[in-house]
Amino acid sequence: MKYKLSFFFVFLALCSLGYSQTKQEREHRIKKSQFPVISTNFIPEAAKRIRYYKEVDSSSAQFKVKFGLKKMKYEVEVAETGEIKKLGLIVKEIDIPMDTYSEITIYLEKHFDKVKVKRILQWYPANSKDAIRSTFQNLILPINTYELLVRGKESTKYRNKQDYRLIFNSDGALVKRDIRE
Description:
Shape: globular
CATH architecture: Roll
Radius of gyration: 20 Å
Helix content: 10-25%
Number of helices: 3
Structural class: alpha+beta
Order of helices and strands: HEEEEEHEHEEE
Number of strands: 9
Number of domains: 1
Largest sheet: 9 strands, antiparallel
């Protein structure tokens, strides 16, 4: 009886270590009429495949506009009030400066056994006065951040592969790390 009770508590403690907090996110497409009104018209007339999305997580909701322009895919995050939060575009490894990407790969090799980069986004904060122009010209600025969506297996844990969202600054240093579900 004594061993059963202690075994039960050990088992319960080990099971609780297996759970981690993950951010529950859901992104679904919405109509243009459901999208908040924005004061500035940031979408060029030549843009194609304009789509509107609402992303809901456990704490808040935000809106996204995705569109294509000159063989590039752009994303704009908008708050519920209609304020532009950040602007970005999907890039490849070759579009990132070499020293920045080498710092990012060093981080990935150090923290993951196996890793696959699914998507790279280059973000421009909307608080700068020329953010829209910088985004459409694809300028490399010191205020840029790079968001990597990766699938990998951490080298410190004996887990299956998981999806991660990693945000790096323009120098290649990690700013934020989330486990996606």
